[in-house]
Amino acid sequence: MKQAVIVCHRGACLAAPENTFASLEKAIDLGAEVVEFDVRPCRDGVLYVMHDATLERTTNGRGRIADLSSADVDNLDAGSWFGPEFAGERVPRLDAFLDACRGRIATYVEIKEGDPAEIRDMLAVRGMLNDAWTFSFDQAIRAEARAKVPDLRRMVLYAHVGSVERAVAQDAHILEFHEDDLNADLVAEAKLAGLVTQMFYGGADRSVFEKAVRCGIEQMNIDHVEVFRAVERELMSLV
Q: Does the structure show a pLDDT above 90 at 1?
């Protein structure tokens, strides 16, 4: 049994405001090997690390990020909503965020909106392409990434493809399972097919983590890192 790679979902989003430099630093402090984050452009095309299309939940702004200039986005407070100690935390520009990751932690870029080729080039110029991968819930973006940037590793969801065979046919590198479609046979089949297996789980149910460990999932895209590592240690001690 081998320790799983930890992917911190939106950074260490339980310890700091999601998708910020603070959550990145906390993820590194936790010992995560990968940081997952979301990307969207503003009105003048600058790419930012931001999950929502609208600003209200995680900043002091209003409306859509796509309608704001980069100067406006740069002035938003993206930390006060989480806690007063994070007041003044900014929405990171993607280029600066990648600079902060470089040589310290690998990157999983979820493209909410944006050009996969531009993101690929930003990774490549920093020598980060080999340790990065991408995904999008937008089918058109997934197709564009496959066609335009085949050297940028891509993840697919089992819920989307429905089989390991289809994941391979789509030239995927990583296959992500969720709580309701995870089983040991599928994980073993994916590994035999040369896919890296990953699971996303936003909760803290120990039984879900136990199942992931017993199934041999290689990467965990999670929020509750300490809970997972505790479960993993307990099960590994029994081997």
A: no
What is the identity of the amino acid at 73? V
| Domain spans of the chain, in order of start | 152-239
Point out the residues that are catalytic: 9, 51
Residues 117, 149 contacting (CB under 8 angstroms): yes
Q: What is the pLDDT of residues 129-161, one digit of tens each?
A: 999 999 999 999 999 999 999 999 999 999 999
Overall pTM > 0.70: yes
Q: Which of 81, 80, 78, 84 is nearest to 24 (CA)?
A: 78
Beta-bridged to residue 35, according to DSSP, are 8, 107
Going by pLDDT thresholds of 50, 70 and 90, the confidence category of residue 230 is very high
